[in-house]
Every structure is written in structure tokens, then in C-alpha cells.
Specification:
106 residues; mainly alpha; 0% strand; extended
């Protein structure tokens, strides 16, 4: 049986969203990898204690003073979370990295 090949894409196919899915998958994969790396870096910073976490947050607010008030409000909310309840619900640990991104290329 002869091998079949895909025909050339139709002119204007990119405007119809063809090709967008591949770009979106690439973006999603990169975003996932960035988030995973950020989680692992936060774990390492957190191991150094509350002072280091404070210094990190304080440095961010010094470099981006416009987010200081919003950051403080979010810190208040996070500080109010009950650690025991959080642990029971499994919210005190990051999930492990999946072996393969669902829907992704191998």
C-alpha cells in the first residue's frame, strides 16, 4: 500500500486558527515547565526559613512598589489559613511532576 502524505495547507489556514493549536501547546508546555521550576525554587527558598521568604517578598516590593499594597492584602489572607486544615486537604505540598503532559507530544 502506498504511503499517504498530508496535502499542503490551504492558503489563509493560519487565519482560520490552523497552526494556533501547536503554538498554544508549545506555550502551555513552557508555562507548565516554568510553573514547575518556580514551585521547586519556592521549596528551596522556604527551607531557608521565614526570614529568607520575607527578604524575597520585600525585595519584590522594593523593585515593584506599585504591587506592595496588593501583596500585603494577599499575605494577610494567606496568613489566616489554618495550617492543620491545609495539611488535611493536602494543600501544604506541591503535586509531583507528571510523567507526561496530558495531550502533549511524547
Amino acid at each position: 500500500m502506498a504511503a499517504k502524505t498530508n496535502p499542503a495547507p490551504l492558503a489563509g489556514g493560519d487565519r482560520a486558527g490552523i497552526g494556533y493549536a501547536q503554538q498554544e501547546l508549545s506555550f502551555t508546555r513552557k508555562a507548565f515547565e516554568r510553573q514547575f521550576r518556580r514551585q521547586r525554587l519556592v521549596e528551596r527558598v522556604h527551607r531557608n526559613g521565614a526570614r529568607v521568604v520575607f527578604e524575597f517578598i520585600d525585595e519584590i516590593t522594593r523593585h515593584h512598589p506599585d504591587i506592595g499594597e496588593d501583596l500585603d492584602q494577599r499575605l494577610e489572607r494567606y496568613a489566616a489559613i489554618d495550617p492543620e486544615t491545609l495539611a488535611v486537604l493536602g494543600g501544604d505540598q506541591f503535586p509531583s511532576r507528571p510523567l507526561r503532559l496530558v495531550g502533549g507530544a511524547p
